Amino acid sequence: MNIINDKVTQYIDELYKPLTPELGQLRREAEEARVPIILRDTEGLLLNIIRMNNPKRILEIGTAVGYSASCFAAVNKETEIITVEYNEETYKTALMNIEKLGFSDNITVYLGDGAEVTEKLYEEGCSPFDLIFIDAAKSHYKRFWEAAVKLAHTGTVIISDNVLMKAMTVSSEYDVYGKHKTNIRKMREYVQYINQLEDCHTCVIPVGDGVAISILTK
Ligand code: SAM
């Protein structure tokens, strides 16, 4: 289910302008190939947060074909972006797209599990990130958070995408065939978890498929 309203979504989508013609082309290709990239309204929100916050370093968990990471790079060419993708074919496609768009100097793509790669970066003494975007396997968000938070600092913004899961997080009645029970349970636990943390302000907003924005206070 669309968590907003089909007419509202259509209206907002009609206002959408791609950042560059090349990114517009990559969005079209990804959508045609049914690659799950950030929705248009989510893109608008994220890019304006980046414009307001001006993060120097971004960590993304869930690269897919490199679309969102390339948008982040296009907003600010000084930003250093590390992104992690689990699927090898997808990883190779991301590398190719990022190279083609001219962002290879800004974006480093790692192949592997988002939590494991992030832990390894932490152990290797990687500098902290100003913005962290979690957009990969929904049942693993808590693992991703726990690894990523080690590479955060006071003021780091952590954005989690798809937290409302087409409204299934809100009510299991939207899981019509009962296929998403585990994902629903884990996402509910995750949303509860990030909302009750002491050293963090979180809000959940009904944009795209539900976006949680968390700001670390410690
Ligand atoms: N952020 C991308 C964008 O908007 O262009 C879309 C990411 S897509 C929703 C999720 C991606 O996460 C998929 O490509 C999937 O292969 C990857 N993924 C799934 N599990 C993962 C994991 N454990 N670690 C890293 N990536 C994972």
Overall description:
With 218 residues, the chain is an alpha/beta fold. It has one domain: Vaccinia Virus protein VP39 (Rossmann fold). Strands 3-2-1-4-5-7-6 form a seven-stranded mixed β-sheet, with helices on both faces. Helix 3 runs parallel beside helix 4 and helix 6 runs parallel beside helix 7. The longest helix is centred in the last third of the chain and has 16 residues. The protein is globular and about 45 Å long. The structure holds S-adenosylmethionine. S-adenosylmethionine binds next to helix 4 and strand 2. The site of S-adenosylmethionine has 19 residues, from helix 4 and strand 2.
Average pLDDT reading: 97
The helix/strand series, from N terminus to C terminus, equals HHHEHEHEHEHEHEE
Q: Are any ligands bound, and if so which?
A: S-adenosylmethionine
Which structural class is indicated by helix and strand composition?
alpha/beta
Give the tally of β-strands: 7
Count of alpha/pi helices? 8
Please tell me how large the radius of gyration is: 17 Å
Blueprint (SSEs and pairs):
Elements (H helix, E strand, L loop, with lengths): L5 H10 L5 H12 L7 H14 L3 E5 L5 H9 L4 E6 L2 H14 L5 E5 L2 H10 L7 E4 L6 H8 L8 E5 L19 H16 L3 E6 L5 E6 L2
Bound molecules: S-adenosylmethionine.
Give me some keywords for this one.
Rossmann fold; 218 residues; binds S-adenosylmethionine; seven-stranded mixed sheet; 17% strand; 8 helices; alpha/beta; globular; 43% helix
